[in-house]
Write a structure and sequence with these properties.
The N and C termini lie far apart (88 Å). Helix 1 crosses helix 3. This protein has 148 residues and is an all-alpha fold. Helices cover 55% and strands 0% of the residues. It folds into two domains: 72 residues, lambda repressor-like DNA-binding domains (434 Repressor (Amino-terminal Domain), Orthogonal Bundle); 34 residues.
Amino acid sequence: MNVAKETRPAIRKPTAPKGASCQPHPIDQHVGAQVRLRRRMLGVSQEKLADQLGLTFQQVQKYERGHNRVSASKLFQIAQALETDVAHFFRGIGTSSDSPAAKGERGAFSEFLAAPEGLELVQSWSKVPAKARRKILGLVRVLAGGEE
């Protein structure tokens, strides 16, 4: 018995336009960094947030890194889970009138706060006596290769 096989056209993935980058969009990265910062400020783990949203913690990681875009409905759920408003995640995105230096400073500050030690350092800093803070700052300058 000879059974004819059904032939289907090959399904191709859409290709990115010429010159398009596979890098995450800067706004997706910014929103993700703000989600991570807010989550960490509240002491919420990725696992706990993921459970509240019905996601895996890996998906939360992808959102926080900007690798996956967050849909409007999911961003709304994230805002509710993290007890803030959706606009919170877009704060700090400048307008075209911002200077490159100002954008760089905000980016460096956000990057610092997003680092695992950054938020803890900021939260602990006010507990350090002023004299010790000046000495610590001098030490950090030396370690960073700057002048004391």
